[in-house]
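F.,

This is the one I mentioned.
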């Protein structure tokens, strides 16, 4: 599995021959890329409907959309998406097969109003667990699994469900504070998830979420976790094995 962070919460994930793009938003200071620099992926995954997560979704409307039914409906009307996974989107707790990947939608504790003239709801905000094998109750040491927590606060579902049952090897968690978890609570999330690798996201994009990722790494060490903290350079691929 190959992971590429494009700044903020935008990720390009490759599983086998399948390309997935999460929360396309290229107006952030970490990347020099424009949406036109990115080949259309097979799937676009949207965690929620805030502008800093769907701003450039329309540039990839030929892809299959993975989002809640409410957000699918909005993106069909606003951006011209014609194809959604399952024909109608998916919802929390569900797992769908997306080419060579299995995508499970998880909870995220956040808000999800879409700021239009007549504000509309995007349904529940979400995170995604992406794996190269279908999740089962049996532990699969051969699976490679990546958890994108989306925009969220600390939630016990990370400790009670996502960590022990979906078993991510790696995770990306927001550290920006103000709108999401900050470094201290994000470090608790890392400990609960018990992942081998973690990547900070959703920071240094706007003044309210300016953060030093080294503070996050220090908090992870301070809680006693041996998780490897990777502060990625934008647009550089990371191979997860």
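My design for it:
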């Amino acid at each position: 599995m190959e992971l590429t962070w494009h700044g903020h919460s935008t990720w390009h994930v490759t599983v086998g021959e399948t390309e997935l793009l999460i929360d396309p938003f290229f107006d952030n200071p970490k990347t020099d890329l424009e949406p036109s620099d990115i080949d259309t992926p097979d799937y676009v995954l949207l965690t929620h409907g805030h502008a800093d997560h769907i701003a450039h979704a329309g540039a990839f409307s030929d892809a299959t959309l993975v989002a809640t039914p409410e957000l699918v409906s909005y993106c069909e009307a606003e951006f011209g998406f014609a194809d959604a996974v399952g024909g109608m989107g998916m919802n929390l707790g569900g797992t769908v097969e997306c080419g060579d990947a299995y995508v499970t939608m998880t909870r995220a504790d956040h808000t999800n109003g879409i700021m239009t003239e007549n504000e509309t709801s995007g349904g529940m905000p979400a995170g995604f667990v992406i794996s190269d094998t279908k999740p089962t109750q049996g532990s699969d040491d051969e699976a490679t699994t990546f958890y994108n927590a989306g925009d969220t606060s600390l939630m016990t579902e990370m400790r009670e469900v996502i960590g022990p049952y979906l078993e991510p090897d790696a995770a990306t968690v927001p550290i920006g504070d103000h709108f999401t978890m900050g470094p201290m609570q994000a470090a608790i999330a890392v400990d609960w998830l018990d992942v081998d690798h973690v990547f900070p996201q959703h920071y240094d994009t706007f003044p309210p979420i300016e953060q030093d990722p080294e503070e996050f790494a220090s908090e992870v060490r301070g809680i006693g976790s041996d998780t490897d903290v990777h502060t990625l350079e934008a647009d550089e691929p990371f191979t997860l094995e």
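The longest helix spans residues 69-79.

Talk soon.
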